[in-house]
Write the C-alpha cells for this entry.
Amino acid sequence: MDTRYRKTVIAGNWKMNMLPSEVRPYAERLRALAPANRACDIVLCVPHVLIPAAVAAFRDSRNRVFVGAQNLNEHPSGAFTGEVSAAMLADAGATYVIIGHSERRTYFREMDAIVNEKVSAALGAGLRPIICVGETLAQRELGITDDLITLQVKTALSGVPADKMRRIIIAYEPVWAIGTGKTATAEQAEEVCSHIRAVLRSLYGARTARAVTIQYGGSMNGGNAAELLSMPDIDGGLIGGASLTPEKFIEVIAAAGE
C-alpha cells in the first residue's frame, strides 16, 4: 500500500450473518480492542436490517467505523418487492455499499452491465461503492484473468467521471479464494491489483489512478494480512469470515499499521 496517495481501507463483509441484538456487543468489543491511532479506515458492510443498529452502535466510537451495505437495487424506486434503493441506504446511515460481489454475480446472475447501473445509483445517492472484480479458477487456468478484469473494471466504471473516482474502491476478489480457505500469494494478488491500476490509468490518467484504493478480498486474515498489505498496489482488504469476530478483525486492522 502507498499511503502517500490513497487511504488504506479495511472493510468487513458480514454477509448473511449476525442479528440486530448482536451488533452493540460486537461494537463494544471492537472498540475495546481497536488502537486509538490506527493506520486505516474501518468499514463494516452489514445486512440491510442491521444498518440502523450498526450506525447507532458505532456513532460514539473514538475509533470511527463507517457502516456500509452489501447490495442495492439500481432503480431509485418502484415496484421491486424486496429490493432496497441507494437513497434508502443513505437515509438509514450507510456510507459505503458493496457492488458486484462474486456471490451476487454467481447466485443472482448479476451481469457487468447491472454492476455499472448500481455504481451510478450509489454515486448519485452519495454512497461510496466498493466494486468487486475477480476470476474463477477455470478462468485463471485459461490465462484470461487480465482480459476478464479489464472488462469488469471498464464496464463497471462506464460513464463515471474522473472527479468521482476518489469515492470508489475496487476490490479484487479471486473467486477461487472466496470462502475456500485458499489465498492468492501476495505476488499473485499484487499482479492483478497492479493490472487494475493500469486499467484505471488508461481510463483516467496516472494522477487519478494512483489515488484509487484497491483492496484484496480473498480470505485475508491476521496471518497473511501484513504480507498482502506490504504490496505497493494493495491498499486494504475486504474481509469475510474474519470480520465476524472482533478479535480476528482487529488482527487485520493492526496489520495495516505494520
The chain is about 40% helix and 15% strand. The longest strand covers residues 128-133.
